[in-house]
Design brief:
The longest helix has 12 residues. The chain has a nine-stranded mixed sheet with strand order 9-8-7-4-3-2-1-10-11, sandwiched between helices. A two-stranded antiparallel ribbon has the order 5-6. 30% of the residues lie in helices and 23% in strands.
């Protein structure tokens, strides 16, 4: 077993609110520089840049392990992070999400930017035609079910944030939602402590992630996993506390 510092909530330039600098190679370089061993790409309602970021990591001698993810905006406007065993699974889940979103028009792109699909070298391959900034047609229960149906892990995103979290949108933490973990986006402080206590009351593990939309934010909050290897399968075991695996906020 080894310790793996991880930031499992990072956006690329595909996300409507992310900086143009958030390209696959730049994210991998920055994560490596920050001492991270594992990251996850979690764009809003899409997974189209996850495979490219994995390829960028392979080109950099696999210095950082990259998991494929999505940050889902539910019908209640709560955010749910889904982590998946492979980009194909994340892309399949994302296809169901984008099918509920309207087509983007010029006014949308003028406000939110181009939602850039990128290759492993950071070159633009096109733009996402759906309004990724909007809430999907999936309510919270359906979003968690979608993640699980595609073999993923469902995490309540940034629960200590005053907007777009399960707590901010619902007022309570739904004990029966089926989450696999809870995420905080600050590593310490009263709000994070309260979130950790709430998660513990429901028997859920807590991890810290940055929710990075710019390179300077990568790794600002991180989790430390005890794993045999930095893989999705090992992360799943760690969230269940199986066979010596585990996770803590750094």
């Amino acid at each position: 077993m080894q310790l793996y510092p991880a930031d499992l909530h990072i956006h690329t330039a595909l996300s409507p609110c992310a900086a143009d600098e958030m390209t696959p190679p730049a994210i991998v370089r920055t994560a490596r520089k920050c001492g991270l061993a594992m990251i996850a790409v979690c764009d809003h309602n899409s997974a189209d840049n996850a495979a490219a970021t994995q390829a960028a990591a392979r080109a950099a001698d696999r210095a950082v392990a990259v998991l494929a993810g999505i940050e889902i905006t539910t019908a209640e406007e709560a955010h749910v992070v889904g982590l998946f065993p492979a980009p194909q699974a994340a892309e399949a889940a994302a296809a169901e999400l984008t099918a509920t979103l309207p087509a983007a028009d010029d006014a949308y792109y003028a406000r939110f930017g181009p939602q850039r699909r990128l290759d492993a070298e950071g070159r633009e391959q096109g733009t996402e035609p759906h309004m990724l900034a909007l809430a999907t047609g999936f309510d919270l229960a359906a979003a968690v079910s979608l993640v699980h149906r595609h073999g993923g892990l469902a995490i309540a995103a940034h629960v200590n944030r005053p907007s777009f979290s399960v707590l901010s949108q619902l007022g309570v933490f739904p004990a029966d939602a089926g989450f696999d973990a809870v995420e905080v986006f600050t590593p310490a402080g009263a709000e994070a402590d309260a979130a950790v206590a709430a998660a513990a009351a429901h028997g859920l593990p807590v991890l810290a992630s940055s929710d990075s939309h710019a390179l300077g934010d990568i790794g600002r909050a991180r989790a430390v996993f005890t794993l045999a290897a930095p893989t999705f399968e090992e992360v799943a075991l760690a969230l269940r506390g199986t066979a010596g695996r585990g996770v803590r906020c750094a």
